[in-house]
């Protein structure tokens, strides 16, 4: 019923607008084309300049309203460069935006058709054209130079001492694997994937490097220590998006990718900094991956070395989960750990 | 004249008649040959336009539906269930339906509306009229071009009604998601229909594009040298070149995708474990598809925007009563954009794991495009400077075009720089950027074209008052919708999410999302007002009483108000000057057909 009423109201508004429009068309015919044109010119000229003024106020207001809800301080060392580049680009494009929009609407208002006014025949001027070819070219050169400098830093090889975490996307969650004590991830093969046997990544148990690898439900990182993500996918393309760290990398089946960064603040510190007790570092999937795309959420916990070590000590080795009989071989695997249950739930 | 001969021979072939038509072309057309399988470029233009309008309503309505979900994720709308059935159980769109709507919105708007509806309409209408030709080089191919588009439309429309729904992997249709029916319900028969439809669409584009190019290169009237052509024609030329060179690459990408789906090949597939089993495919690269796709995909955005640029240049000159400033620079910048369009595709792929060194070249070439774009903007500004501007609805939409092109173009400088893209890629910032610069701007160019050339198409005017309401609501609404999205993107809010409520990083924009959705509904309603104005004016609009209502210099206004097939009743007029002699030597305008006077100053 209310839907029907809403449609009725809209149709009525349409009819009213239409009748007004039709009437004004007759009026303009009566008044003569020239007079009608002068009148609509004055109204639209006024609206153009009003739009400019209100628009610029609106831009300021929108910024005031939303600036507290966006960027925040970069939570990674590498992200600082990204932010600097954003601000430099904002300054340059912001200036150009304000100047060109003012010129556009001001010219439109000022040079609206008037009685006795003649347009100025001005087909070209080489000097002007050279000026506005060269100035943008210089500004862009600066941006390209800054941008590429950061780009090569961001994409450089991770430091040798960086921690390694493997993040593998699947519909619709993230599988996280740590290399364990040896610091090296074991071999894996997608044909060995067997969820029933606690092997969601297809880890190759013949590889000695696999034996001390463990999986987790959250990524835990040590503050101030560089970390390298080894990224992959089990099915379709996903994307590891780390908004607070200003990082992003696709997870492509068959083609491993990497990214690395150094977290600056622990999760606890960020809660204080942002004044938000619910603050969480999140991994968002940024590449359309199917109907559960929007729910593909991962959590990153940044903590101190001690907290991290305590956490690692509690993680059961994936090898022992996959080989319950051989469990005694791994002394540090508490059997009915809560994490273990969530891992099991996760891989379903 | 050679083009008359072509036209005649075409008609004879089709009518099977050998009686010679006189130059006035008063031949008797049946309803079918006049309105359905017409070979008159003007009628084909109208067919493209009206089909485009129908698609635009559907595509925009889809955006209203998914904006309801984004704006009001907790609300239920029982009427949704009555239109969408089990896709909106209980009045709430399912994620599957949401992704189908998003995908079809993109596909429809990008290809069917802003490619076929925009350049299909105006290239067809204006190329013969403005270069002084009786019709296209091949009217038959032109007719086929429309009907292939119509077939593509039918197949795409059919895909909306299959049980597993239409394609739902995003308009870019990235494999493996689009290649595997197990990965998504929309990747079952939906993607096959999508690919079939797009293949037919590519055929339509090639038939059209080759025709546009050969017509404007070979069939210009006497005196119409390339540098005397209006900028509209130049822009249609470069648009057609872009399409002809890049659409075949897209088609090849689609064929490989079809083979991966049905022939067991592994072009794009490797190392995949899905639905509980490992697939046999090894050695393919999912990234290969992205290269093939974006090799068209990026030129595609220029296929969309160049015709709008051309029409805006023309309308701004006519309504400012001034020559377009820097005519040659305008052509040069179109040319530069056309070349660069082919060299920047991988800026859509900075975060795919692309070699960073290769990425650096794409950063450089991408930001280089800002230079010709800046030239165009400054030239438009100088065109209206010291003009005597008449604010017709077309002029207002042209001014709006320049405004949105600046706003959306500048954010391209952000995204083209890979170090910023690494944060903003696939967020709402990207949505804001491309909707403003190629969605809203291209629509503004299209609206400018429709309001300006409506009298030529139908011999009547559209209602001005509704035109003004349409312009102001659309301009203000477009900024209200897309401007705040930049902020959401800066927070890293990913695009193509069905619901943000479970995220602590992105759930701070609830009120803003609802606000945007309300504005979307208002703007959509206003577009319906435009559609009503369009169809009402075809039959009841104020009649055109003079040949040249805007006092324009170009050739289309030298044809009779209701030009028959063949455009000019007598000889095709000869051209003596460029298209932009406005306010020269104290005269308001000098038509292109007027010989250069002995005392006239050179421009």
From TrEMBL, chain A:
What Enzyme Commission number(s) appear in the record? 7.1.1.9
- Any one Gene Ontology biological process term? ATP synthesis coupled electron transport
Molecular function as annotated in GO? copper ion binding; cytochrome-c oxidase activity
Listed A to Z, the keywords are: Copper, Electron transport, Membrane, Metal-binding, Respiratory chain, Translocase, Transmembrane, Transmembrane helix, Transport
Q: Name one GO cellular component term.
A: plasma membrane
Q: Where is this region: Disordered?
A: 323-348
Compositionally biased spans, kind Polar residues = 337-348
Q: Where is the composition biased (Low complexity)?
A: 323-333
Query: Which catalytic reaction applies to this protein?
Result: 4 Fe(II)-[cytochrome c] + O2 + 8 H(+)(in) = 4 Fe(III)-[cytochrome c] + 2 H2O + 4 H(+)(out)
Coiled-coil regions listed in the entry: none
- Indicate how the chain sits in the lipid bilayer: Multi-pass membrane protein
Where found? Answer: Cell membrane; Membrane
Coarse class of the primary localization is membrane
- Cofactor remark: Binds a copper A center.
Top-level division of the source organism's lineage: Bacteria
What PROSITE patterns does this protein map onto? COX2_CUA, COX2_TM
Q: Which cofactor does it need?
A: Cu cation
Looking at the UniProt entry, the stretches that span the membrane are 6-23, 43-61, 85-109, 130-152
Tell me, in a sentence or two, what this protein's role is. Answer: Subunits I and II form the functional core of the enzyme complex. Electrons originating in cytochrome c are transferred via heme a and Cu(A) to the binuclear center formed by heme a3 and Cu(B).
Name the protein family: Belongs to the cytochrome c oxidase subunit 2 family.
Q: What's the name of the protein?
A: Cytochrome c oxidase subunit 2
Organism the protein comes from: Chitinophaga solisilvae
Automatic annotation (TrEMBL), chain B:
Give the membrane topology, semicolon-separated if more than one: Multi-pass membrane protein
Which GO CC terms are listed, alphabetically?
Answer: membrane
Q: Which PROSITE patterns match?
A: COX1, COX1_CUB
Q: Which InterPro entries match?
A: Cyt_c_oxase-like_su1_dom, Cyt_c_oxase-like_su1_sf, Cyt_C_Oxase_1, Cyt_c_Oxase_su1_BS
Q: Which domain of life is it from?
A: Bacteria
Protein family membership? Belongs to the heme-copper respiratory oxidase family.
What PANTHER family does this protein map onto?
CYTOCHROME C OXIDASE SUBUNIT 1
Q: What is this protein called?
A: Cytochrome c oxidase subunit I
Q: Which organism is it from?
A: Chitinophaga solisilvae
């Amino acid at each position: 019923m209310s839907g029907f009423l809403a449609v009725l109201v809209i149709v009525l508004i349409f009819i009213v607008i239409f009748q007004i429009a039709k009437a004004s068309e007759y009026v303009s015919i009566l008044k003569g084309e020239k007079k009608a044109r002068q009148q609509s010119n004055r109204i639209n000229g006024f609206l153009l300049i009003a739009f400019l003024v209100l628009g610029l106020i609106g831009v300021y207001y929108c910024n005031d309203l939303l600036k507290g809800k966006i960027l925040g301080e970069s939570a990674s060392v590498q992200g600082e460069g990204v932010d600097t580049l954003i601000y430099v680009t904002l300054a340059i494009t912001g200036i150009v935006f304000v100047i060109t929009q003012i010129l556009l609407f001001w010219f439109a208002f000022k040079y609206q058709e008037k009685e006795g006014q003649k347009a100025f025949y001005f087909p070209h001027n080489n000097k002007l054209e050279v000026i506005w070819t060269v100035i943008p070219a210089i500004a862009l050169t600066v941006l390209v130079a800054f941008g590429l400098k950061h780009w090569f830093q961001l994409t450089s090889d991770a430091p040798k001492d960086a921690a390694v975490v493997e993040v593998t996307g699947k519909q619709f969650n993230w599988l996280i694997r740590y290399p364990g004590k040896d610091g090296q991830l074991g071999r894996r093969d997608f044909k060995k994937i067997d969820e029933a046997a606690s092997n969601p990544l297809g880890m190759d148990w013949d590889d000695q490097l696999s034996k001390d690898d463990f999986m987790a439900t959250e990524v835990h990182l040590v503050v101030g220590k560089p970390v390298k993500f080894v990224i992959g996918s089990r099915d379709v393309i996903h994307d590891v998006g780390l908004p607070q760290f200003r990082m992003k990398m696709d997870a492509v089946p068959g083609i491993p990718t990497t990214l690395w960064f150094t977290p600056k603040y622990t999760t606890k510190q960020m809660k204080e900094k942002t004044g938000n007790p619910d603050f969480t570092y999140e991994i968002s999937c940024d590449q359309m991956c199917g109907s559960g795309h929007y729910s593909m959420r991962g959590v990153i916990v940044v903590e101190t070395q001690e907290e991290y070590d305590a956490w690692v000590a509690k993680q059961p080795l994936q090898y022992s989960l996959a080989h319950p009989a051989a469990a005694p071989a791994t002394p540090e695997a508490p059997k009915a750990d809560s994490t273990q249950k969530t891992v099991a739930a996760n891989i379903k | 004249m050679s083009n008359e001969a072509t036209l005649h021979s075409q008609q004879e072939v089709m009518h099977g008649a050998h009686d010679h038509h006189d130059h006035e072309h008063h031949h008797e057309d049946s309803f079918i040959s006049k309105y359905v399988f017409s070979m008159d470029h003007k009628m084909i233009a109208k067919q493209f336009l009206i089909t485009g309008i129908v698609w635009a309503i559907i595509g925009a309505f889809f955006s209203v539906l998914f904006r309801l979900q984004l704006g009001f994720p907790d609300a239920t709308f029982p009427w949704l269930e009555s239109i969408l059935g089990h896709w909106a159980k209980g009045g709430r769109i399912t994620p599957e339906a949401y992704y189908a709507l998003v995908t079809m919105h993109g596909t429809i708007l990008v290809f069917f509306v802003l490619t076929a509806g925009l350049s299909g309409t105006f290239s067809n209408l204006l190329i013969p009229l403005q270069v002084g030709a009786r019709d296209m080089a091949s009217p038959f191919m032109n007719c086929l071009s429309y009907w292939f588009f119509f077939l593509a439309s039918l197949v795409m429309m059919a895909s909306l009604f299959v049980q597993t729904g239409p394609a739902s992997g995003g308009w870019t249709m990235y494999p493996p998601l689009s290649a595997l029916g197990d990965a998504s319900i929309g990747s079952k028969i939906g993607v096959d229909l999508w690919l079939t439809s797009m293949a037919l669409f590519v055929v339509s584009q090639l038939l059209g594009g080759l025709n546009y190019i050969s017509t404007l290169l070979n069939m210009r009237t006497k005196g119409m040298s390339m540098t005397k052509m209006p900028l509209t024609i130049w822009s249609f030329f470069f648009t057609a070149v872009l399409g002809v060179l890049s659409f075949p690459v897209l088609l090849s990408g689609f064929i490989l995708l079809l083979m991966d789906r049905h022939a067991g090949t592994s072009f794009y597939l490797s190392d995949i474990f899905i639905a509980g089993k490992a697939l046999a495919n090894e050695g393919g690269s999912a990234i290969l598809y992205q290269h093939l796709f974006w090799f068209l995909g990026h030129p595609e955005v220029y296929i969309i925007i160049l015709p709008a640029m051309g029409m805006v240049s023309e309308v701004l000159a006519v309504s400012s009563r001034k020559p377009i400033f820097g005519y040659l620079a305008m052509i040069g910048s179109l040319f530069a954009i056309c070349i660069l369009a082919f060299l920047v595709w991988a800026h859509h792929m900075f975060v795919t794991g692309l070699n960073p060194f290769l990425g650096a070249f794409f950063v450089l070439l991408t930001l280089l495009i800002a230079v010709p774009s800046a030239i165009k903007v400054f030239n438009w500004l100088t065109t209206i400077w010291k003009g005597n501007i008449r604010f017709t609805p077309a002029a207002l939409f042209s001014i709006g075009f320049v405004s949105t092109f600046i706003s959306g173009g500048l954010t391209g400088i952000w995204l083209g720089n890979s170090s910023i893209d690494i944060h903003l890629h696939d967020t709402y910032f990207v949505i804001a950027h491309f909707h403003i610069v190629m969605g809203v701007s291209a629509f503004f160019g299209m609206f400018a074209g429709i309001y300006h050339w409506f009298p030529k198409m139908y011999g009547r005017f559209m209602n001005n008052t509704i035109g003004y309401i349409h312009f102001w609501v659309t301009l203000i609404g477009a900024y209200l919708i897309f401007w705040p999205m930049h902020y959401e993107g800066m927070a890293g809010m990913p695009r193509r999410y069905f619901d943000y409520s479970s995220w602590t990083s992105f759930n701070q924009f609830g009120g803003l999302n609802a606000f945007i959705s309300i504005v979307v509904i208002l703007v959509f309603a206003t577009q319906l007002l435009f559609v009503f104005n369009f169809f009402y004016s075809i039959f009841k609009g104020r009649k055109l009483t003079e040949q040249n209502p805007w006092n324009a210099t170009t050739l289309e206004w030298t044809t009779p108000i209701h030009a028959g097939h063949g455009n000019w009743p007598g000889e095709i007029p000869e051209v003596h000057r460029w298209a932009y002699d406005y306010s020269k030597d104290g005269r308001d305008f000098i038509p292109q057909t007027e010989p250069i006077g002995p005392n006239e100053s050179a421009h």
